[in-house]
Amino acid sequence: MINLKQKLKNNERTIGSWLTIANPIIAEMMAEQFDWLVIDMEHSAITLSECQDLVRLIEAKDCVPLVRVSENNTNLIKRVLDTGAWGIIVPMVNSKDDALKALSATHYPPKGTRGVGLARAQNYGFDFDSYKEWLEKEVVVIAQIEHINAVDNIKDILQTDIDGIIVGPYDISASLHAPGEFCTFEFKSILRKIVAITQKFNKSLGMHIIPPYASELKKYPEYNFLALSLDTLFIGKKIEDELNETNKGI
User: How far apart are CA 119 and CA 241, in angstroms?
Assistant: First the structure.
């Protein structure tokens, strides 16, 4: 399994994807191919119990399990990390205070405010000390930049101890009152601003690429933490593409 935290620190490129279906077979197949997988608990019906099962399965395939929590909530972050997730992606981080809140929820006192539980992450109480040591060195916290307010405050966000940021293109465009419109001058200018400032602070920069085609990766040479599409689109687009090819010959 890769040391994701170190690769983020070194700005080395890694490629992951998104899970929105709590299906172990799909997760297992995808874990064979990617460096990391994000279990999406913001825009899916995945439960905490299902999340823990997916974390276990992804780990078993030497793939890094991350979770996008549904909101920047101390209790949610604590519970997700107690499943054994190696890190979190926090949506709608729009300010330095938002970033600090997520970091605090991740760590035990005195560094943070996370409550102590004895769950899967701590081997049910048998390995708390080793987990505490691991947490300080390896846990990953990624701030999702998906609103114009976050872009306005990006310098302050990047000066915190987060491991990096990932751009959420749909929500950024929505905050500009043009959801899904990625070709506007304003949207492209915002992306250029994010890239320039993130490079200046030498932080890891991620992008969630929606189309399920590897060729899309070439469009983002400045980004090193790349999420390629999601499970439903990989399945749906493959079916659509194959049927379109079949229909051409009819």
Answer: 44
